[in-house]
Amino acid sequence: MPSGDPEAESSLDQAASVFLGLRPRLFGIAYRMLGSSADAEDIVQEVWVRWQATDRTAVLDPAAFLATATTRLAINVAQSARKRRETYIGPWLPEPVDTSADPEAGAERGEELELAVMLLLERLSPTERAAYVLRESFDYPYGQIAAILKMSEPNTRQLVSRARKRIAAERRTPVSSAAHRRLLTAFLAAAQTGDLAVLEELFAADVSNYSDGGGAVRGASRIPVFGRTRVAKFMKAFAPRFWPGTTIDWVEANGRPGVLISHGDTVTAFVTISASARGIEQILWVMNPAKLAGVSPGPVR
Question: Does the global pTM surpass 0.85?
């Protein structure tokens, strides 16, 4: 908005330039904290408003200032989101984001962006999650994380260590992206025909199936399904009602191959898996229409 003051306009232009350069990282922090691109965008916008209103001549390190504002806002939103999710209908899954190009969720360590990992992050407290994300995804020094979280460095190290152990205890080493795609391809073929034998061969013994419909989709299971035989039988029963008339488009979301399933011109589901040397560990179906806007059909690398 023109102010008539060239110096003020120059200052705002410089502020915008700094902010836009850091925006991908700010979005990445907020998205990993919340599992929602819409909430992450709201936080980034709020940080921009605060940045415009700040006496920037007193800010020695703009990157640190903006990361701190983003993280603290995300912690506040995460605390209220946990309460809202207690009334969420059915399983809650993170909202997938398109990472087919240079992702706006940009991070030095992209593996922490996988949906299966983000689902594990939900089990951490908001402060634990912030410490883990800043360290593991963005490689922030412990001293800077401590300043952001307003705690001592030894406590910060302990927080990150505890979060790492909790994640590692529940996460098996993932397969390569190529193997991931092969397994997902085989799963889709078997799921469409309801081939029990093939499905059971693809699954780890304790495979789990999560469907997030948010109460808005009739076909989404409101309870998770666990175990090789039960999940295979569920897929067989599911097949005749779901697959006829569908089309499949491959996408890259959260750093891994996945597929969008459409009925006519309407995208009705995003599906991906997590897999280890034991086979498919999880099948994740995002069917809530509000969570499907962030991914679109396109080439997968």
Answer: yes
